[in-house]
Amino acid sequence: MFDFTTLFTLTIFILMVLFLLWKPHGVNESIPPSICAIFIFLAGIVPLSDIFKILGIVSGASITILSTCVMSIVLDSIGFFRLAAINLVNRANGSGVLLYWYINLLCFLMTLFFNNDGSILIATPIIINIVTILKLKENQQFPYLFSGAMISIASSAPIAVSNLANLIALKIVGMDLNAYVAMMIVPSMVGITTISLLLFYYFRQDIPKRIMVLPASNIDEKYSDSPSSIPRHSLEDKAHLRHLHLIEDKAHPRHLHLIADNAIHSPVIDMSMFKVCIAIVVLIRGGLFLGASLGIPIEWIGVFGALLLIGYRWYRKGVGPHDIVKKTPWHFILFAFSIYVVVFVLYNSGLTGVLVKLLRGPISANHLSACLISGGLLTVMSNLFNNIPSTMIGAFTLTGMGLDIQTLHIAYLANILGADIGSLITPMGTLASLIWMFQLKKNGIRISWADSLKVTIMVIPIGLIISLLSLYFWVEWLFF
């Protein structure tokens, strides 16, 4: 049925997904797809001309995401996220319910202004820090940790620049960034709000009505003499404490865990510098959409903003870019490029053609079926294979159907809702979910896949269906 090229590529794809999810010995996520791409190139399946074509497609999206990562690193270095944690506790004013909504809002805004992976990496330590400071019980910690992660990941849907796969797929289907936001922001916000409300209802018995009220100065105290101020799991032995880096490891005296670093060594905030940096981030984020409407490549605007922030910090604090060079996930470009090579070969080998033949009729029938089928397909694929390759496969499948432009756009947006929201059913669905679970495990917080599935199976399908229906009615009413 399949020739050698198809079988070889399919085998490579399956192995790539398995190793991405397994990550043996904590291997960097760019390594498995890079090795697979090298094998495909050496086998002569993809010519050099296509390699340059692929590089041109993924480089812009990757650079845009990297620029947001750089901006988040600069903001972290001046104490922005630490200040956010302090304000969350203070503004909650002793209300556990208010704290829940503030955490959800923080996670939403962090993804909106940066990206979902960065939001998870930064927000999770902040939330762990907060629930530790407040001495919450394990069942009381879970609603904050879980809802924060779900909202962080789902919030990449409203604007395409918060997610690498969304940006690449946007280019594949030839959709304008401003058109994407105009059509997507309301339906995705409806879905995110629905998920947040459903999670609140699900966890209503576990969210504490009242929490401790602490002055900001107390939040900066060390976890030291009082056993109650250290997470319960960290009291077992010194080795575990050293693992959490709440005490210094002589072998690695400067390697402090992010949570301990934020909790113990909170920097002094220069408010005038702080306000300028926030203004730069907001203006650059808005500039992405203005640039898109003027035909300016959005990666140029992102790079300009990142360089402006680095330069301003250097001018005000005398801190050079060495931390940026160390902390920026440069492998994103290699990761995106390599996955695209594998998916591109799948497309050329005709495997996406099978999906085209099966789904062209139902999807082209009407916009409602295009919404529901596309969103449902990407939900299933993302939870089986991860949403990054699934989003690209979905985009290639849609472009191969010969759909009219309206149906193509609504089907693509439904794809994104399935990949960004529907993928939350299992931790396998997104790399951000896997990063989140790894962070929790590293800090002694055990949330199993079964624990996660008990919640997501009750919440995410409802949120997804409401999102897809909102997309259909919103687009039909306002655009078509």
In this structure, how is the largest beta sheet organized?
none
Supply Rg.
22 Å
Helical proportion, percent range: over 70%
Tally of distinct domains: 2
Spatial shape:
globular
Average pLDDT score: 81
Structural class: mainly alpha
Parts with pLDDT < 50 across at least 5 consecutive residues = 216-267
Quantity of strands, as a count? 0
Q: Give, in order, the helices and strands.
A: HHHHHHHHHHHHHHHHHHHHHH
Q: What is the overall number of helices?
A: 22
In short:
By secondary structure, this protein is an all-alpha fold. 74% of the residues lie in helices and 0% in strands.
Structural topology:
Layout: H1 4-22, H2 31-42, H3 48-77, H4 80-92, H5 96-113, H6 116-133, H7 138-154, H8 164-173, H9 177-202, H10 216-219, H11 238-244, H12 258-264, H13 271-294, H14 298-317, H15 322-327, H16 331-348, H17 351-365, H18 367-385, H19 387-399, H20 405-420, H21 431-442, H22 449-478
